[in-house]
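To whoever is covering the structure queue this week,

Two jobs came back overnight. Logging them here so there's a record in the thread.

Job A:
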Amino acid sequence: MGIRAQWNVTKRFRARRFLSVGALAAGVFLCLSVSVVWAQPHEKNVLVLFSSIQPDHKPLDLIETAVRGRVPGQVNFYTAFLDHQRFEDQSYRESMAETIRGEYKQTKLDVVIVAGIEALQLATQYREEIFRAVPIVFFGLSKSELKEIKLMPEMTGVTASPGLRETIDLARRLDPDTTAIAVIDAAPNFWWRVAHAELLRQQDKLREIDILGPPSPKMLEKVAALPPHTVILFQLAPPSSAEPAIGAFDILNAAAKHLPTYSAWSTLCLNYGCIGGAYRNWEKDDLLAGDMAGRLLAGDRPENIPIMDTTNVKVEVDWRALDHWHIPESALPPGSVILYRPPSFWESYRKYIIAVVSVIAALLLLIAWLLWERARKRKAEGLLRESEKRFRVMAETTPTLVWMCDPQGKITYLNERRLAFTGPDPKAGYGDSWIEYIHSDDVRNVKDCMTQGLKDRVSFSREYRLRRRDGAYRWMLDVASPRLNGDGSFAGFIGSAIDVTDQKVAQQALEKVSGQLIAAQEKERRRIARDLHDDICQRLALLSMELDRANRGMNEPADVTKGRLREIRQHCSEIAGHVQSLSHELHSSRLDYLGIVAAIRGLCHEFSKQHEVSIQFTDRDVPADLPREVSLCLFRVTQEAVHNAVKYSGVGQYRVELTATAAEIQLVVSDSGQGFDVEAAKGNRGLGLVSMQERVHLVQGSLHVESEPGQGTRILAVVPLLSERQGSPEDDGIDESEGVSAWHDCEP
């Protein structure tokens, strides 16, 4: 008999009343209500017909979910169930058809969904009586079963075959010693024939044993008599009505205890002692059937929805049966699903383990943090002690005078060098007593500077005179910076003072030397002007007079005229020679075009000719591509040294040597003349030594002067050959014409 149930799942519109203040508001509300009622879509009715009585409604839930995804309106679901074991009875089928027709005579069905072969057979056999012109969607049957039914128009659905072949292959895989397969079924029905056809493929390896019929003690005896190396393929479905004294599951339990048992239907196998099998995804079929029904309800035509086959099985096994028959999990095919495995120790006590581990981890972290804090504190204290020790060592060994004061400006620390500088009293200078050692003219400035620094709390510097232990005052440059406590508060100042008396004296001396250089430059210019006026200009005037006289004597004899022209040419040559000599003193063109060797050789030749002395010049391994500043430096040093040697040595023979190595170039100018006292020469007003020293220093070289009275003079200039040089004579503001004869005032 059919059992009817109805699910009304969609939301119905419920009218809500609002109290109206006026007639106008009530009228507007009524208009809106009428509009909503007319806009409500027509409700749909769906009948789901199952081939057997279902213990639950899981397929219906999935179908309803899929339909809801397609149809937003109201859908009413109805269900009916068949007893598949009584389906072969013609009177039962007629009774069910009449019952369904009477049940839904007053209900307009929009779609019928049938589950299983029996339901589809009933729907096709009595379509005109109960489901005329209603689209039918089927699922829960195989493609082979569908071939035995003549489909009518407006029918579509989903097919999926059980994994009989895959289940038999699984049995042989897990029990490779199998020689026979016993098929337990109710009768030689459709699925027995399918299983028989599959076993015929392997009849050379396997023997088929059929145990057919309803559950009975005789069937139990046949199961118990099965030989070893046999596996059971169980296909005996339980009846939909009340179980007999011995039911299908009694047979299954006995079979599963006696021999490894498999089934292609999960409801006949899993959780009943059976090992397992290959099963299709019924949920996927339910969803697909619901989706097809939703499309039909939405207005799609059945002929536009093709029949789909979703045969795709997955191996599922019962871990308890595997363990009972000692079958390792490694023997399973990849991707197999193992059910009913007992939870591991971790799975059973995971929450407690996680809680305990969390507490232990928190305690360990707390202990680690405390140990780290302790170690960090000790390290910080050690670093502080080490820092204080380093500060003490640095303060006591530094060449400067170190002091510290508090936020009020009182001295709290003086290093040993500071105490040794001011006197033997170890307490001198502490507190406010440091004022006593400042020069009276500088006290006010020092106090004001300290007061402003304490007020602004920024670094400052000052210069003052500090009394030394011998009573002499020395100029000090004192630089102070603020100190901070650990909390960032102001702790006072720390300062260091350095004696800059020598620098001040040197600065004054440098200013004096600068004035001497300017005076020497002016003197050199006066000399050049005097030479031009007294020599060159006089000779040019004389030459002009001779030319005028030669012009007036054009009528004189030819030999007289030739003689005068020879004199004029000689005078012109002498004037040109003097101008050239003066030009070479100012700047040598040979230095630019021919290099240092040619320039010094030409200089020696001109000095020899001009002063009638002998200058021997030698060179060795001098590169042709010396930097210009090096060449100019060596040329000017040679010019200075030779000029002073000729002027002051008192001899007529001199040596000039220019030698180069891979790292440096050396210039030596020597004579065996009178010599002089080098220290005395540096202390007088002459600038010769200073000029040469500065020129060599500009090219990062060194100058050595070796001379004693009566022992001759030797000047050595050494210049390194660097790949890159910074600075040149022009860049440093030195005119090439300055100091051409800087030893003019340097008396021996």
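Job B:
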Amino acid sequence: MCGIVGYIGKKAALPIVINGISRLDYRGYDSVGITLLEENKLSTFKAKGKIDNLQKKLDQKTSKASVGIGHTRWATHGKPSVKNAHPHLSQNREIAIVHNGIIENHQTLRAFLTGKGYVFRSETDTESVAHLVEYCYHGNLEEAVVSALKEIQGTYGLCILSAKERELIVARRGSPIIIGIIHTGEYIVASDLTAISEHTNNIIYLSDNDVAVLNETGYRIFNLKEEKISRKVEKISWSLSAIEKGSFKHFMHKEIFEQPDALKRLLAGKYDAKNSIPKFGGINIKELDLKNIQRVIILACGTSWHAGLVGEYYLEKYAGLQVEVEYASEFLCKAEQLSYRDLVIAISQSGETMDTLLALRKAVSQSALSLGLINSVGSTIAREVDGGLYLHVGPEIGVASTKAFTGQVLSLFLLSLYLGRVRGCLKAAECDALFKQARALPLLLKGQLKGERAIIAIARRFKRAPNFIFLGRGIHFPTALEGALKLKELSYIHAEGYPAGEMKHGPIALVDKKMPVVFVVKKDDGHSKILSNIEEIRARKGIILSLIEENDKDVRKKSDYVIKVPSTIPDLSPIVYILPLQLLAYHIARLRGCEIDKPRNLAKAVTVQ
């Protein structure tokens, strides 16, 4: 849950590493640090809080060092402080390490190393790795790192630097490490592509248990048995503008407005009109196996789990499948029995969410078929599933997910149509009509964005509200959950999402004249029941904010505030209804002075359990 950057080459490392960790600050962090190799000596600078605090310590510092590593830390072991910030140094201060992940046996290592005379300066699990590498060092850093890694239990993305050898060593188990190849002898390494993309589009994704040595003569990749490994050099297509805010004040605001174009890209080339079926390049599962599926299990966390709940409706309706949507972390605790008749769909924007990855591995170990629904090409989940559906919505920098959610929902809709056709549950004409509705979404969303001013006015009204309830029925319940999540992530207002029918079973006790209740209302089969729910809130003097279609006069009359949304078929309504809720959460947070792109205590990619 933090960021790693390393550089080795002929340029000054200091500005490259600082700029790199600045690119990663959206992942969330509480402290920051950098180590430079300067004339056979390691110079380390750390600060608690933001990168600006580190910059103050580095002001007017010039350095000719062309090798350096940097880190943004999100505390796991040990409170946020300078002493717990990375990089961590070995006892002789000749080895520096930055680390993402958790060393599970760090207490055992700490006890062993303390017995050997090592003194620990921090409360972190990472410091045990620095001392262990020194303990194993006998003149060759590569050998010392391999020896140390064989003793480590847990997860790691590591970047290691020695005062005695002009090279970088990186290693990965369960936490991403990417190598960017600028030129032979010049490399940038990072835990995220955003720190690399402005320097090169030639990258290598390390796999678990890979170790790489980078120096002026080139690079080598091997495993812990010291067997040479070949990894494909891939090209990334991101432009620098994709990871910059442009004219927007916040990445989240930009990404909300990118959704029409993002969904248009997602839909491009996704339909075989001749055969009336969606088409995907990466499913890689035989149609016969898909016909024989008896059950689908969706594994996800947070916003992706909400998208999975929408997907459950689609898969049951169009593909005739039994579907279970599981929190990945909870799936790991269950004694679930799977087989080749089960299809597991792992949903993760980053493709690195640790709980989802481990749940996927558990399912695959029981012979289940697997698909990944991901946005990051080359990520761990993308490489471990049988087939992958890429969102192609572009990099998402804001911690609170927006365009990834709508991309996930639309992808699940298309996948359901595909499986429905393969399994004979959906007729060609029906599929054609449904895809036509999906193709209209980008234009609908573009029109919605023109109504931002009205949402800002509502945000001003509710910016001081202490609590919110979000209610929806059927396929609109996940929208209520996601709307509540966005609000609490960004504004720190307590918000809960419920199925509207559950309101009477507890939540109604919270309703008073200070309680805003947001209704997600579609003129469908549940409309009359929603009207009854609204009346119950009105009777208790709750404040009613309703998301409605233009022609819904009944709900408009009973609401204190309304946000109008364009009409589409009920199954695609979660995509058009969530956009104004994203904007509402954004503007309430902005008016409250919250740090929108980096909400407190949150990280973009949760790569630890």
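Note for Job B: The longest helix spans residues 403-422.

Please reply-all if you pick these up so we don't duplicate work.
Q.
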